[in-house]
Each structure stands twice: as C-alpha cells, then as structure tokens.
Amino acid sequence: MDLPFLSMFPRNCCEIASLVLGKVLVDEYPEKEIFMVKAELAGHGRHFWLKSGKEIYDITADQFEEIERPIIGELSSPLAKKYKAYEVSEIRSELAENDFGIHISIFSEISKTVREMA
To answer: How far apart are the first and last CA of the chain?
Structure first.
C-alpha cells in the first residue's frame, strides 16, 4: 500500500496519522466517542492527537525528543500539558470534513488492513 503522506512518520504527519487512526478506531469501536484534539504551542507550531474518554492516543508523540514512544490509551501526556488545545472535534466530523484528495479514499482500506492484522 503506497502511503506517501505518511512517508516521514512520525515526523510532520500528526494530523493525517490521527485521522487514519481515528478511522481504524471508529470502524473497530463504532459505539465509542473519539475526538481529535488540535493544539498549538507558540513558536513550535501545531500538534494533533486523539482522545476517547480520558484516554489519549498520540501515535506521533515520539517525533519529539522528550517522548520515547507513541502514547496509546494513557491518561496523561507531556504534550497535552505543553500544547494548548484550540479545537476539539468528533473524529467522524473530521473525517467527513477534511479534504486530502485521493488519499482520504484509502482510509477505509488502511482501516480494514490494520483491523485484519489484530
């Protein structure tokens, strides 16, 4: 599967990676409420992650020097403390509203492949 928009993973792809993970989670757990957190830190730009209940999912957190691994289902995150959230929105609406051209059309294929691997 060709994924050029994730070629630098985990660097500089937190938004698209969060959308892809969001699609996998929505497909696997349709009853769950999953939110995309959009945050920023002055002078450092923006960062995106997912949240469901109190659990944080940041699969690109390890692009930052102070973080050794992705954050999966943890109750806190150094980045969530450092970056200020400016928008929190339901992942289904984010998936419907984002326009990544032809790339968005393969989210379902990615989701299916990942869920089959589990």
So the answer is: 18
Asked whether the predicted pLDDT for residue 8 surpasses 90, the reply is no
pTM reported for the whole predicted model: 0.79
**30 CB-near residues (< 8 Å, 6+ apart):** none
Q: What backbone torsions phi and psi does residue 106 show, to the nearest 5 degrees?
A: -95, 0
Q: Could you tell me if 76 and 58 are in contact, meaning their C-beta atoms sit under 8 angstroms apart? A: no
Average pLDDT, the chain: 82
**Residue 117 to residue 57: CA distance in whole angstroms:** 19
Which two structure tokens, joined as six digits, stand for 33?
A: 């409420």
With beta carbons less than 8 A apart as the criterion, state whether 98 and 89 touch.
Answer: no
Count the neighbouring beta carbons within 10 Å of the beta carbon of residue 23: 24
Residue with tokens 């954050």: 71
**Band of pLDDT at residue 37, cut at 50, 70 and 90:** very high
Helices (H), the chain: 14-28, 78-82, 91-97, 107-117
Question: What is the β-pairing status of strands 84-90 and 35-41?
Answer: antiparallel
